[in-house]
Design a protein that fits this description.
The structure holds two protein chains of two kinds. By secondary structure, chain A is mainly α. Chain A is built from four helices and no strands. Chain B folds into three domains: about 375 residues, no CATH class; about 50 residues, no CATH class; about 60 residues. The chains are: A mainly alpha, B mainly alpha.
Chain lengths: ~70, ~525
């Protein structure tokens, strides 16, 4: 076994993943899920409302102030 | 904005948040509970050197892994919703909400993911003791991750340790420890995590019961029940104690929620606790859907007063007292709170106008009011009431609050009984003959989820109309976005999360049927 700590860590994870039995199906679910959440959902359906409409915090605070005092 | 707010937007946004939170909570309590059961089982393996304990630990670890993998990142959706659907809220709470969530993210990432990998991949690669330490750290990490989320939630139920900054229109954290050590936060964390322990224990007892019914893996099943039922008994007692403490907090910080969960309309001394009750139409206010009278109830005299104040004759305020006020008992009316809230909003409006007019003196004068402790205590703390147009809006859905609370409590006591009996059956070695109880234990897994979800329904529905208690009503927190888009994402989430839940159940069942690796042909 290599004495290099990084190689040993790599081998630890590599062997671990290779030895998984149920895990392969789970990894597919995890990857699809993360893709749907972070790519499809976040990009197309969940833009940050204040971030996307205003350029700076001052404008954002003015907008919220307007909303709270109307 | 408030007068012409689109209520369907508010309802769909709330529905979407509730849907994702309830689905997310299907995965979390099992992770919290099962992680400790794994740690106990592995400790027994390390202490005894009995390879069977190792096999048992690895079997439950596989189920833990399935639940963790499918549940991971489902909570991130809630954070997306804060930014998109609840932007006024997100801005208003400032770093108070953001800081605990950031800590949670970092802790979860480093503690759970690092030691999780060691826990799964480290068998026979590192020493037994290091492996055991990793398993314990996963368990502790899971509960500590929950702490930060619950601290953030507790702050919404009881906002403290902050100062409103009118310059930024944000609440700023001034005392981290006050927020972290708030009795509401501490009790919420203890109660929620220990309820996860109970759910995990019911899960293990239920699955082990299935093996016994099938006359398979008998030793695994009996040992698992031994560990899970013991842990379940201790956790159930702790859940009852922490629940009692939580309720005592609620009566002080959210008296309307307390009145709602008990269906108490008129305050009374020596108030009784409704053990079982069925609600029907109300003579109190038949037009109000939120209010229902008891058609039938079994009450334990004076217990509610004791539960609330530790005194059997103590006065417990009801819904009517909290709306109309009760001078004799020092309870301010809703109308008075609304007046004070409206004044606080007017001051904020004056500040805005002074800023727009470049009136620096006027602006500083209004700003100084928000820094004045007297204004904070007498006016700003009722800021949210300034949005309320009718005191009836301040009454949460009483039947839903009542039923969810009593479902949770009733099932909590049932689980304690189940654990005790299962433990006795194992000790007497009669458990294999108790087929009725074994079947009941399997069905109890669904009941454990029902109890756990009911707890959240009670906590979140009971505090309506507030998103931040007394400071911001839910309808003022919502972003002005298209309600149609919220409906689309609602159904999208419903489909995705249902698919994930089905995947979890199917993979779990398949794995349970396969049994432990060592026992497979």
């Amino acid at each position: 076994m290599s004495n290099n700590i990084f190689i040993r860590i790599f081998r630890f994870y590599y062997d671990g993943f290779r030895g998984m039995t149920v895990g392969k199906k789970l990894w597919i679910i995890i990857l699809i899920k993360l893709f749907v959440f972070f790519v499809i959902m976040k990009l197309f359906f969940f833009p940050d409302f204040l971030e996307s409409r205003f350029d700076n915090d001052e404008e954002r605070s003015e907008y919220v102030l307007e909303q709270l005092t109307q | 904005m408030i007068d012409n707010i689109d209520l369907s937007l508010v309802d769909w946004s709330r529905g979407q948040f509730a849907l994702t939170a309830l689905y997310h909570w299907l995965f979390v309590p099992l992770t919290i509970g099962l992680s400790f059961i794994l740690a106990f089982m592995e400790t027994l393996y390390v202490r005894t050197g009995d390879e069977k304990w190792k096999s048992i630990t690895k079997f439950w670890m596989t189920l833990f892994g399935i639940n963790f993998a499918i549940g991971v990142a489902t909570g991130i959706i809630l954070e997306f919703q804060f930014g998109t659907n609840w932007s006024s809220y997100s801005w208003f709470v400032g770093d108070i909400f953001g800081a605990p969530l950031a800590i949670e993210g970092i802790m979860a990432f480093f503690l759970e993911t690092t030691f999780l990998a060691v826990m799964f991949f480290g068998w026979n690669k590192i020493s037994k003791k290091w492996h055991l330490a990793s398993t314990w750290l996963v368990a502790i990490g899971a509960s500590l991750s929950a702490l930060w989320i619950l601290v953030a939630n507790a702050w919404m139920q009881h906002p403290i340790g902050m100062q409103f900054n009118p310059d930024t229109v944000r609440n700023e954290m001034v005392n981290f420890w006050e927020i972290l050590m708030s009795p509401v936060a501490v009790n919420k964390w203890l109660h929620t995590t220990s309820s996860g322990f109970v759910l995990g224990s019911v899960f293990v007892v239920g699955v082990a019961s299935w093996f016994l019914l099938k006359k398979r893996e008998v030793l695994l099943a009996k040992r698992s029940i031994l560990v899970a039922a013991t842990f379940g008994i201790l956790s159930s007692i702790f859940v009852i104690w922490s629940g009692d403490e939580s309720t005592r907090q609620i009566v002080h910080v959210q008296p309307m929620k307390f009145a709602a969960i008990e269906g108490l309309y008129h305050g009374q001394e020596g108030a009784g606790l409704v053990a079982i009750g069925i609600m029907s139409e109300s003579t109190e206010d038949s037009e109000n859907e939120n209010i229902k009278d008891f058609f039938f109830r079994i009450e334990i005299p004076n217990l509610l007063s004791y539960m609330a104040y530790g005194h059997f004759e103590a006065f417990v305020p009801g819904v009517v007292d909290l709306i109309e006020g009760n001078q004799e008992r020092g309870i301010m009316s809703a109308a008075e709170k609304m007046e004070r809230g409206k004044y606080a909003r007017e001051v904020l409006r004056d500040l805005k106008e002074a800023k727009a007019a470049n009136d620096i003196v006027g602006y500083e004068a209004e700003k100084a009011k928000f820094m004045d402790p007297g204004f904070q205590e007498n006016y700003f703390r009722y800021f949210g009431y300034g949005f309320i147009s009718d005191p009836q809006q301040l009454i949460p859905n009483v039947p839903l609050s009542f039923y969810s609370f009593h479902t949770m409590v009733g099932l909590g006591f049932y689980f304690l009984l189940l654990f005790i009996l299962m433990l006795i059956f194992v000790y007497r070695d009669t458990i294999e003959r108790r087929r009725g109880w074994l079947r009941l234990a399997i069905w109890s897994i669904a009941l454990a989820y029902l109890a756990s979800e009911s707890g959240w329904i009670m906590a979140e529905m009971g505090r309506q109309p507030w998103v931040i208690q007394d400071l911001m009503p839910t309808f003022a927190a919502v972003s002005q976005i298209d309600a149609g888009m919220v409906q689309v994402t609602f159904w999208l989430f419903a489909a995705i999360f249902t698919a994930l839940a089905i995947a979890e159940v199917r993979i779990m069942i398949r794995q349970i049927k396969l049994g432990p690796k060592e026992g497979r042909k």
